[in-house]
Amino acid sequence: xxxxxxxxxxxxxxxxxxxxxxxxxxxxxxxxxxxxxxxxxxxxxxxxxxxxxxxxxxxxxxxxxxxxxxxxxxxxxxxxxxxxxxxxxxxxxxxxxxxxxxxxxxxxxxxxxxxxxxxxxxxxxxxxxxxxxxxxxxxxxxxxxxxxxxxxxxxxxxxxxxxxxxxxxxxxxxxxxxxxxxxxxxxxxxxxxxxxxxxxxxxxxxxxxxxxxxxxxxxxxxxxxxxxxxxxxxxxxxxxxxxxxxxxxxxxxxxxxxxxxxxxxxxxxxxxxxxxxxxxxxxxxxxxxxxxxxxxxxxxxxxx
Length: 304
What we know:
This protein has helices spanning 35-43, 55-65, 88-92, 94-97, 116-125, 179-185, 197-206, 227-244, 251-257, 263-272, 277-294; strands at 2-6, 27-28, 31-32, 48-53, 74-79, 102-106, 109-112, 130-136, 144-148, 154-159, 168-176, 210-214, 220-223. With 304 residues, the chain is an alpha/beta fold. The protein has 2 domains: 2-251, Spore Coat Polysaccharide Biosynthesis Protein SpsA, Chain A, CATH 3.90.550.10; 262-294, no CATH class. Strands 1, 4, 5, 6, 8, 9, 10, 11 and 12 form a 9-stranded mixed beta sheet that branches. Strand 9 (144-148) and strand 10 (154-159) form a beta hairpin.
């Protein structure tokens, strides 16, 4: 499966912060926003990723992430000259997708919860059509909304409805089979002049090939589109990291845990960051991993 991160848009709701900087490069507590969606793709065992953004922002993303090889990935870049809808990412990324399936994630979304990587990898391995992820929200009128029946089957999709049929917001993570390339190419712009991702999902729904996975209690989905939501996301990450001692969306640690890089590589990246909390954390993670793998098993002799 290929991955696409859409880090485009003009960020008008967050001006003046975004006048010179991409929204997806703003800090969410201790790391850039882009680390959060990138870590989701990594946890899904997706290592070939296309990052789409405005031309004036691409060099900053390249400076931050490079070609991805430091963390065991391949990261390519593509330009979205004007924001023309989420679904445009699928036409821009058509060559990148090739004949594969694709996971599309928005660059301003945080997903965090117990067992999420297992749920994600399960959805990828069983993908047949389209998989969406729904999250219960207080005011679903602000979102695309999915309605499911008593058996959990997806019945309808609506974009920012005045009278929502459910409280399940469609999150910014979408899994598609390869049919999505042709579906996206055939889309017509909506009344607001955009290629709507809801229209893509509606095609799958009409073909009875769309499934919705509900992310319920104990899970957090955060959409960082305003100053308030950016602050809330940072506070959420800060609280959990200080309480638990583990870091959320630490891409170097994810790469180590997934076997994409060695403990030595993780250690070296931590040392490069010097006397920062983030660097010290990477050094500690790498040191503990080296100690764990060097520990002899019970079946092995431990001495003369």
